What does this fold into?
Amino acid sequence: MTETLRFPAEWEPQSAILIAWPHAGTDWADRLGEVEETYIALVAAITRFQDAWICVADDDVETYADARLRSARIDMDRVRFIPFDYDDTWLRDSGPITLREGDGFRVLDFRFTAWGGKFEAGRDDRLVEALAAQGLFGDAARQRIDFALEGGGIETDGAGTLLTTWRCLHERHPQASREELTAKLAGWLAQDRVLWLDHGYLEGDDTDAHIDTLARFAPGDAIVFQACDDESDSHYAELKAMADEIAALRTADGRPYRLFPLPWAAPVLDEGRRLAASYANFLIVNGAVLMPAYGDPADDRAAAVLAGAFPGREIVQVPCRPLIWQNGSLHCITMQLPAGLGR
It folds into this structure.
């Protein structure tokens, strides 16, 4: 890892959480009312701890979002609206990946292809450039990188170790070897090493196994991961193999990681389609962990696991069942901005 560049862990101090408000022109149109309730609950949770920056597609969307949030008695002093016409609201994948560079920042702008060209993404691919043009990143340098990479596909411990999945990166770049991809990721993201998982997937996930639905770093050389203890479930063998892989990983100084397996929610079906209800898709904010809740008895057990992995932080459950209808959850719709970034 270079001396001047560092990719901070998500649990380090933040200035804001960036999201985009859902509207009738996005894929949420058919269930807009339900998902708006999730967004209101999310903004209420974020603004208890820090600022929320909300992209809005036009003046009408801003006026509507502002009214909905005020009616929910949100602390609007901690809300900032940002005009930008987006394709969809998955800002974990289209948003900025921020490195600390000396006393400042470098904002990485990777190419966003909507998970390998599955959907239209022309406007979303311009998101980071548009935010930078509005001066939202202050004097941070923006680095455009002509390489398809989503924020949900990578996880860092803030100390030079990156965790990712081979399934996702190989799908995006089928001609590249693991050694080539390791070198590229380590170079751009200022990492000393890259740990690859070969197993792990969720039905209903169209990201090709993003790491943030499967396994996440926690402070003190810990990994929180989505487990499955139901041998009759179609995920059992693959998640068991992933758990074994994670158990075999070692820290930079050769020690086993402390492991925190998350419970498995009962299958959530929508017109016969299995939805990806992962508890690993949590969001870390200043002083708290916001976790996706699915109205399942396992919600409280997942909260207890996260409390053990993140001692001293409040665990806040956010109702996310409407989100998984579109194949993502809480972490997928958010992107954190490190403390000191932005104006």
User: Anything to note?
Assistant: The CA atoms of residues 25 and 87 lie 8 Å apart. The two ends are 28 Å apart (CA to CA).
